[in-house]
Recover the amino acids of this structure.
């Protein structure tokens, strides 16, 4: 599967909101979205008045926003959509819940990585264990009751502890974090309210259902 290696701030500018692709930097004045001359869409003619997006364009932007936030590509995104279709309940809620349960997202939400990309790299490099077993697949879907820990080596622990800090960080209600042992627990499955970016999931479902 390919991967995007260009400037990630360009993606935030294209979607018109902060996707937190650079972690804590996105909350400072250095963020491109905080600069008036760079908060417009990328491109040399972004200053021109663009046409109003049609129905397809609005739905496409919603889907692209979610894909870029979670770091997935079209083929993988459609796999999650098919899984959400087969799940009980609302398809949009099920889709967002599946994306929230990705291991790289859980690692980021626990504070083990400063950004989605850094958390994905930590998983791929074998620094993260689930229920005592190493898992190096960022797309791994966690279950309720799973324990997410750091590889039992001083190098891995020091690397993660430098990010977490001594006091740890505030995590969402569906997660539980112990900063002293660098252990996180999934106490419940994520819900629609746990998604931290504004999303109109119904528009995504309408587009993918065509």
């Amino acid at each position: 599967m390919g991967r995007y290696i260009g400037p990630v701030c360009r993606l935030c500018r294209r979607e018109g909101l902060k996707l937190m692709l650079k972690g804590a930097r996105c909350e400072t004045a250095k963020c491109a979205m905080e600069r008036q001359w760079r908060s417009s869409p990328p491109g040399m003619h972004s200053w021109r008045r663009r046409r109003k997006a049609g129905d397809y364009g609005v739905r496409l932007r919603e889907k692209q926003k979610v894909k870029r936030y979670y770091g997935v590509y079209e083929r993988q995104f459609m796999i999650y959509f098919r899984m959400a279709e087969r799940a009980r309940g609302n398809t949009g809620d099920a889709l967002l819940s599946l994306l929230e349960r990705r291991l790289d997202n859980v690692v980021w939400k626990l504070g083990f990585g400063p950004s989605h990309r850094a958390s994905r790299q930590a998983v791929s490099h074998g620094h993260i264990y689930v229920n005592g077993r190493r898992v190096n697949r960022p797309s791994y879907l966690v279950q309720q009751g799973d324990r997410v820990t750091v590889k039992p080596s001083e190098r891995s622990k020091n690397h993660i502890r430098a990010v977490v800090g001594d006091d740890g960080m505030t995590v969402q209600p569906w997660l539980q974090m112990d900063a002293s042992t660098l252990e996180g627990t999934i106490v419940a499955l994520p819900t629609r309210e746990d998604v931290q970016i504004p999303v109109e999931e119904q528009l995504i479902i309408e587009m993918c259902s065509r």
User: Anything to note?
Assistant: The beta strands are 128-130, 133-134, 147-150, 175-178, 183-186. Helices lie at 9-15, 55-70, 74-86, 91-100, 103-110, 116-124, 154-164, 201-208. The longest strand covers residues 147-150.
